[in-house]
Amino acid sequence: MLTGAVVVLHVLVSVILIGLILLKSGRGGGLSDMFGGGAMASMQGSTVVERNLDRLTVVIGVLFAVTTVVLSLRLV
């Protein structure tokens, strides 16, 4: 029962992590350009939205790693 719940959580975290990574800017695009902040972002570095997106990506990445370890220990 617990393994099934962790598997569902792991799948949800995986989908969220994929979405967050796709929102991050590459060489010029990204979330800030999508909402019209491209010119301002190039003048002042990263925007608040991008910094928060970075933080959220790290948190979800850590949660992904934790669920991966939990699943590997539960399935062995």
In brief:
The chain contains four helices and no strands. The chain is an all-alpha fold and 76 residues long.
Provide an overview of this structure:
The protein is an all-alpha fold and 76 residues long. The protein has four helices and no strands. α1 packs antiparallel against α4. The chain is elongated, with a radius of gyration of 16 Å.
How many beta-strand runs? 0
Helical stretch tally: 4
Question: Can you summarize the main beta sheet?
Answer: none
SSE sequence, one letter per element = HHHH
Topology:
Layout: H1 2-23, H2 31-34, H3 38-44, H4 48-75
Helix pairs in contact: 1-4
Which terms summarize this structure?
76 residues, mainly alpha, 0% strand
